[in-house]
Design goal:
four-stranded mixed sheet; 2 domains; homodimer; Glutaredoxin; Glutathione S-transferase Yfyf (Class Pi), Chain A, domain 2; globular; alpha+beta
Chain lengths: 215, 215
């Protein structure tokens, strides 16, 4: 099993957490997004979209972090990333997807580069854009967590799962962009609980080997 | 079962296809996105994110189209929206998620309104933005389809599934924005096969009751 990733990619960060929660330690290959490695012809043969992460396993290459994590959960079911009951699974996937579909894709590097280049967005405008979509998404996530009896130490009960895995990198990056998260006490409480997990610590961007060499 | 949707929402369109493929006919409630219904206090109690679709089933409200479709596939497994084998499931979810995470969220109404209001994007700039992300995503999807022996009449084999369900609304909207799709023959071939399905026809935006009253 080989993970193609980059320390600062939220989507690769997610997959690292999932792997480490399951006690897996794949080979890793660095795709340096700042250097443009993701657009090389060689990497496009791995991942035609030119994005990270990709996961090579047993002759197949899998793309898209959410699909990769569902795969990991299917072939390494213990510990599970999703609850057993269909409604619980839908709740966890719903929260995960608010982040994975409606926050993160708007705020990744390719998009920020586009709004700078095409719309002349300066630092304030980029930060405004970033914070707007974090707020729009977290305004949806916070009540789903705060108002549900199914929320526990983590997003769903007392074990970490797919929603927590998406939450941590999003909070991490929101803090990098100085987003005001004071309106999201439940998100912050769960994020704090996640940060105490060895798997999350091991997956943190700063704890990846390439972090030392890249500003 | 009740679906909160809107004829022009790609995400609601997806869920309609999934429901009709499975022979389900839920009650529907219109959330008029042009009129701002999604932001009303009443709808926010259903869906705190203020997005469509939402699915009410048996006392629970589910959000996010991808989570809703996984739920439908779990409780109404026949016909399945995902293949049996884990690698096949990951392939289908990967293709579906390129669309659901990396194309559609960038091009929905809220985002287009933002770039008009905040960046002064005119019609050409909005169209350029829209087409750029369609191209970026479809450039990834086309080779995953064209170069795989697992592609059949549909994205994965000869029965429609989750990837096809995401493909159809994305092609539909790309055509509305006059995107040049000539570089994606496999996408177009599969889209044509999908359009022949009764479930897709029934789910088309123009075939929803509210389409008659809204320009």
């Amino acid at each position: 099993m080989k993970l193609y990733g980059y320390f600062r990619s939220s989507a690769a960060f997610r997959v690292r957490i999932a792997l480490y929660l399951k006690g897996l330690a794949p080979d890793t290959e660095l795709v340096n997004l700042q250097a443009g490695d993701q657009s090389s012809a060689a990497y496009r043969t791995i991942n035609p979209q030119g994005r990270v992460p990709s996961l090579e396993d047993d002759g197949a290459v899998l793309v898209q972090s959410m699909a990769i994590m569902e795969y990991l959960d299917e072939i390494y079911p213990d510990p599970p990333l999703l609850p057993v009951a269909a409604k619980g699974r839908a709740r966890v996937r719903g929260i995960a997807n608010i982040i994975a579909c409606d926050i993160h894709p708007l705020n990744n590097l390719a998009i920020l580069n586009y709004i700078k280049a095409e719309f002349g967005a300066d630092t304030d405008a980029v930060n405004g854009w970033y914070r707007h979509w974090v707020k729009q998404g977290f305004d949806g996530v916070e009540p789903l967590l705060a108002e549900s009896p199914e929320t526990g130490t983590f997003c769903h009960g007392d074990a970490p799962g797919l929603a927590d895995i998406c939450l941590v990198p999003q909070v991490f990056n929101a803090q990098r962009f100085d987003c005001d998260l004071s309106g999201y006490p439940t998100i912050l409480r769960i994020n704090d609980a996640c940060l105490k997990l060895d798997a999350v610590d091991q997956a943190l961007p700063g704890n990846q080997p390439e972090a030392a060499g890249i500003a």
